[in-house]
Amino acid sequence: MVHLLLRRNWIGRIRLALTLAGLPFTVCSSGVGPAISCTPSYPFRATKTITSTSTSCCKLYTTSVRTMPSSATLHVKSRCPQYPGSKIKRLPVPDDKVDWSQKWPQYNPVNHTDPAVLKKPVWADAEIGVFSPKFNTVDAGVDRTGFEGTYKVENGKPLNPHGRTGVTGRGLLGRWGPNHAADPIVTRWKVDAKGAKILHSVSKRPILQFVAIKRKDCGEWAIPGGMVDPGEQVSLTLQREFSEEALNSLSVVPAERAKIHERINKLFKSPGFQVYKGYVDDPRNTDNAWMETVAVNFHDESGNSVSELPLQAGDDAGQVKWVDVDSSFALYASHSHFLELVAKERKAHW
Ligand SMILES: *[C@@H]1O[C@H](CO)[C@@H](O)[C@H](O)[C@H]1NC(C)=O
């Protein structure tokens, strides 16, 4: 079930106006070495123009399991030497000093909050001091609870639950503490002309297909995820992101929209399979602000629900299509991990 549903405190959906003007999308253009994967997993919600300035951020998706958003692994991207979208160099944090419990009295991280965040756009908090939110709760419509339990707050500032990053402040992230995203994984079975499931020639298992978007910012295929708006239930974010990015529901004619809406509603009301819920090792993370996500699989078993809707790319997506779920498909590392779990759960080919 998708009962991650935070307390309802509906203050209306606040659109994240993109004062950032593509800022999160340029993150790897500033001299980050190719070996370091410094691309954000989730672009902030953009109302329109996404200026695609760099493609160098796309090296990332092939890296090892170390980039998986697992609570068991040390965060790596969160320590990438060059902070994205800036000239800031993180203080290097060795593996054995990541955990806060390891004493490090000389630890003196760089303080960095991006100027675009300091301007206080609608998606960003104010500086601590003038502002003191209630952490670990839903406060004024903003969900400040962490998916992995209570996080520590020190001197009024939340501490990254996965440890040191070499940067304090919020960097490019709007919220102190957790910044929530959601990843809808919509699947169907691959069938032949007669509607029979196609089995993979090697594994002999049926093949799943999922809806993938090709991101405009870096040209990589990804799950159509996005940021959770303040006051928005995660289940709604999942549905909204999918509708906007994969069906371009914002631009279709009203009659068509009703039909799309009905099918989408039905699918997203079905009990989804929660694939992941927790911390994301994201290059924008700091000691005081970090990404978290919920990935949920919604499966069209009979193939007559969303499977029949024409896919159409929305604002953040260049293309959208059904892609075979297969371990060889190059995808953002954590997304690939999510799909593997989906394939296992559905006893499908991987
Ligand atoms: C960190 O930077 C922010 C803004 O860039 C500033 O308001 C704050 O006082 C700084 N904090 C410290 C501890 O230097």
UniProtKB/TrEMBL annotation:
Monomer. Interacts with GLOD4. It catalyses: ADP-D-ribose + H2O = D-ribose 5-phosphate + AMP + 2 H(+). Its EC number is 3.6.1.13. Transmembrane segments: none annotated. This is ADP-ribose pyrophosphatase, mitochondrial. It holds the Pfam family NUDIX. Coiled coil: none annotated. InterPro entries: NUDIX_hydrolase-like_dom_sf (IPR015797), NUDIX_hydrolase_dom (IPR000086), NUDT9 (IPR039989). Keywords: Signal. Residues 189-345 form the Nudix hydrolase domain. It comes from Amphiprion percula (Orange clownfish). PANTHER family: ADP-RIBOSE PYROPHOSPHATASE, MITOCHONDRIAL (PTHR13030:SF8), NUDIX HYDROLASE (PTHR13030). PROSITE patterns: NUDIX (PS51462).
